[in-house]
Amino acid sequence: MTKFTFVLGGAASGKSAHAEGLVQASEKAKVYVATAQAFDMEMQAKIDDHIFRRGPGWTTIEAPFDAAARLGGLSADQICLFDCATMWLANQMQDDALPDAEQARLMAAIDGCRAELVVVSNEVGQGIVPENSLARRFREAQGRLNIALAQQADIVVHVVAGLPRVLKAQST
Predict the structure, then answer these.
(1) What is the domain count for the chain?
(2) In the 8-state DSSP scheme, what is residue 98?
């Protein structure tokens, strides 16, 4: 059985819907670790769409900053969708946290997580070089986080235009 699936893709690529489908297919208790914060109406509408699409039967844990602690509290009879690593990292950087230290905490929590885990993240390295320093630092930190997640994952799926493509499959 797969313990850790990493789903990545561009913005609005269908990655969250794909990840939700993976979790919905499980018989385990469903947990959603939410990292987004609604600072405006557009983001609130996006969050509401995700909630509606998931439907009932999920336990939602709000964790815009301390996802590591939340993952550590899950049990083996659960499956968790962590959506998404990109918003989590953005929250860390906006809060002036040290991205490398927070990444290390998150990766340790994923390694120790007893629940089956599906993590969603944005692929940010295929666009243009950002014009400002903060955006470039974020892109670099997100790239490092995605590499670490992909290395640790049993399965890695890249979603483009709603189409999933397996990049890494668990060896048996």
Answers:
(1) 1
(2) -
**Element holding 6 (H helix, E strand):** strand 4-9
Claim: this prediction has a pTM higher than 0.85: yes
Q: pLDDT tens for residues 94-129?
A: 998 888 999 999 999 999 999 999 999 999 988 888
Is 50 catalytic? The answer is yes
Q: Are 149 and 82 in contact (CB under 8 A)?
A: no
Distance CA 44, CA 49 (A): 9
- 141 within a domain of the structure (yes/no): yes
Catalytic, out of 50, 54, 70, 158 = 50
Domain assignment present for residue 76? The answer is: yes
Nearby residues of 166 by Cβ (< 8 Å), 6 or more positions away: 155, 156, 157
